[in-house]
Amino acid sequence: MLAYRSPLGHLSSPWANQRPLVTPPPRRRTGRAVAGGSSSPLRVREARPVRCPLMTDFDEQGRPEPPLMGDETATLLGYLDFLRATLEWKCSGLDAAGLNTTAAASPLTLGGMLKHLAYVEDHWFSRRLHDREPHPPWNTVDWNADPDWDWHSAADDTPGELLALWRDAVARSRDLLAEALATGGLDQPARRAWPDGRSPSLRWILVHMIEEYGRHAGHADLIRESVDGLTGE
């Protein structure tokens, strides 16, 4: 199997007009007034808002920084969103050929990673945490016929389809997390137990998701560098 099934020149991008999961800080134009009522040429610089504990900082890639002084829930959610944004960054700007590129002896691809993590999001936050039926396309997959269908079938999807599938899964996960946290804390057990009767806590699920994304972010680093030389953590 390709992955542990615990349930998860630059090329033109078909994603360019889609709204990212994270939005960088606003930019503003500033200028210096001169005699005669005109101003010097305007230059663009980053706005620097006053810092407060409730504000989110963004790095140079537009990823939300985990809160420095957040509580346990805010810290876990912050790191999960940071790693989600890292995956999106590593997959951005690539066409189908780029998303289907492999590195070294591994068959992993960035496109397969997007589809796999879309599945993992649905599996843990919908299927396990809330005991709901799998969302399409997972509800019709014959996992016995191909345990790695998410990875393999990604080659048949367009870049736009893969990113939309993953983004939709992340948006649903956020809603499901908010729903769970509105009625309980991190100690609450998943409603759908494992075959042996045990149920992981919401805390366990969040830590597992951070581990899952962190592991694949490392894979994405190597694959993306092999595509076009892009590097960065």
From TrEMBL:
The protein's name in its UniProt record: DinB family protein
Protein source organism: Nonomuraea spiralis
One Pfam family hit: MST
InterPro entries: DinB/YfiT-like (IPR034660), MST-like (IPR007061)
Stretches for region Disordered: 14-42
